[in-house]
Amino acid sequence: MQLKENWLTYCSRPTIFRRVIGTSMLLLTLALLALMGAERYDNQRNLYNQTASDLLTQLTGIGYELQQEGLEPPKKGAILAEQFEPGENLFTLCDQQLNSVFVSQAVRKRSIGDLCAHVKRSQSKWSTQAVELAPKRHYYVYPLTMETASGEMHLVILRDANKAQRELAARNSWITIKSLILLPVILLLLISGALWGMKPLNRLGLQLQEIIEGKRSRLGKPEATELVGITHALNDMLEQSEQRREIYQNAMKDLAHSLKTRLAAIQAILDDPNSNPEHCRSDMYDQLTQMDQLIQYQLRKAVMGRQGLSTEKVAISPIVQQLTNMLDKVYRDKRLNFIIEIDDAIQFPINKEDLMEFLGNLMDNASRFAITTVKIRVEQDAEQQLLLTVEDDGPGIEPALRQKVLGRGERADERHPGQGIGLAVCNELSHSYGGQLIIGDSSLGGAAITLKLPNSHHYVDRP
């Protein structure tokens, strides 16, 4: 059962696994077949040469037989051996045109065909393979060329190859058995090697699955050098995805925070029993227009980041006046006194929607904590940097908390409602334009929050 499950597991491996195993097995099988063929040929050649090892000795017996027939023997002979006595040698003598001149007694006795014609058909391409020259009788053919007094002659000698053929068949059978044993072993080793080699890739897949399931946030250190690049790329992509998700979340929080003040203004307009219907309709239209602009602005910021928003020179007075009219309705019960000290000639190098969001957050915070007075002033310092300050006469912000309240979700006073977003948004905006947000003490007795901004189009991208 376990073996069946393992086999099904192998069959269900990814395509890359099957391709590696299939291609490797194909190449190894072809290589093994080539080695088998080479070994078979080597065995065949060795037996051919082994059978011809005493061929020189046989020439003496052939010489005696030719002498008995009145033909000139080879010029060089050898010591006569018993197995090569005249009448026992298988040979044929051919002339220069490969026509039969003499056929030995043994060849005639065994009814072997014309050896000269056989050599002529083979076109001098001698083979180490045994040839069936008689029914169920195989022979090795050894063609020799020799010089005689009559000219060049061809001596074709035969050797019985039946015994060698049986030995060759046994050797070839052993080669086949070895191959049948070796192929499964190679396959198992190949699968084991492929599984071991793909282990880092499988672990990478498991880590990605854990990221999907929320069990981890980043890929671990890769186990293989080849995976370093892809691991770093995936981690970078995950980081960018988190940053993009954070941008969307912050944009939605900023939108909700910005709309809250507009909704409060609409509620105040609707609750005012003394409002003129015509003025009420106009004020409602203004607030709805601002809400629509805020939505479009936050959506652009979420999709493109601040790099996609253009910078421009914006007059601040109309925006301050518009926000003052809105906050005057929202905090109508406080009857706040808004002091505006702005030189109409001063313009801010900032996107209009960014300036609206920045001022809206600062003036809303100041109005919420102020007792009677909110002050907005704009000036230039000695270095020609623009200073936008919003002050109030409220409780202020303790020095120990001033850096803390610039983070998202951080609040200096838990007794007042809020999400701790406003100052964080202002801090992000100031940095995106190369500026600085400074929290200090106001001459009115409360907090003074200042935007220090270079009087240029200098811009720093923020994701």
UniProtKB/TrEMBL annotation:
**Keyword S-adenosyl-L-methionine listed:** no
Its recorded reaction(s) are: ATP + protein L-histidine = ADP + protein N-phospho-L-histidine
EC number(s) reported in the record: 2.7.13.3
UniProt domain Histidine kinase: residue ranges: 254-457
What Pfam family is a match, any one? HATPase_c
Task: Tell me which residues make up the HAMP domain.
Answer: 195-246
CDD domains listed in its UniProt record: HATPase_PhoQ-like
- Compartments where located: Membrane
Q: Which Gene3D superfamilies match?
A: 1.10.287.130, Histidine kinase-like ATPase, C-terminal domain
Lineage: superkingdom:
Bacteria
Query: What GO annotations for molecular function exist for this entry?
Result: kinase activity
Residues crossing the lipid bilayer are: 20-38, 180-198
Top-rank EC class of the record's enzyme: transferase
According to its UniProt record, where is this protein mainly located? membrane
Instruction: Return the PROSITE patterns for the record.
Output: HAMP (PS50885), HIS_KIN (PS50109)
Which SMART domains does this chain map to?
A: HATPase_c (SM00387)
Q: Does the keyword Transmembrane apply?
A: yes
Q: What keywords are annotated for this sequence in UniProt?
A: ATP-binding, Kinase, Membrane, Nucleotide-binding, Phosphoprotein, Transferase, Transmembrane, Transmembrane helix, Two-component regulatory system
Extract the PANTHER family matched here.
SENSOR HISTIDINE KINASE YKOH (PTHR45436), SENSOR PROTEIN PHOQ (PTHR45436:SF4)
- This protein is called histidine kinase
